[in-house]
Amino acid sequence: MNTDTPLEERIAELRAGTGDPRAMVGELRRAVVLVPLEGGGLWTAESGGVRWILGFSDEEALARFARARDAGDGRDTGRSWEFAALLGARLLDEIVPAIGVPAGLAMNVADRDGAMLFPPVMGIVPDAVAVDVDVTPGGQG
């Protein structure tokens, strides 16, 4: 029985070379994304000059991350992980721009074959915060 979420299915298709990137982004925008909370805010990590929000497609994906994180620290804390459940569109359209630096979404990072990065580029985040917008002199894109 396939228990993948529609977003996980679109990610798998794209990773297999058969998917449509626009369909995957559309599915992300419709999906509820679970984001762990840390220090009173959303859990993020910086890599390659981008601030990545860590998002998960369901509680099982978040649990795999929690187990991997605890194992990487050499301990099994058994602690509960608080998280926010946010619509993907809200993450991309409101939260990413509010971060104030180039930011994107890293989905299911503990799943070797199911992880996907949604970088801060046109078609994923608003053009105003996309890093690949070509701005010509005079402010016209």
Précis, in short:
It is built from 4 helices and 7 strands, in the order ααββββαβαββ.
Key features of this structure:
globular, alpha+beta, single chain, 3-stranded antiparallel sheet, 141 residues
Give me the count of strands.
7
The largest sheet has its strands arranged as 3-4-6-7
Which bin fits the share of residues in helices? 25-40%
* Topology as a string of helices (H) and strands (E): HHEEEEHEHEE
| Integer tally of domains | 1
What do you see in this structure?
This is SseB protein N-terminal domain-containing protein. InterPro entries: SseB_N (IPR009839). Residues 7-110 form the SseB protein N-terminal domain. This protein has 141 residues and is α+β, with helices and mostly antiparallel strands. It has one domain. 33% of the residues lie in helices and 23% in strands. It has four helices and seven strands; from the N terminus they run ααββββαβαββ. The chain has a four-stranded mixed beta sheet, covered by helices on one side. Helix 1 (6-15) packs antiparallel against helix 2. The model has no long low-confidence stretch (mean pLDDT 90).
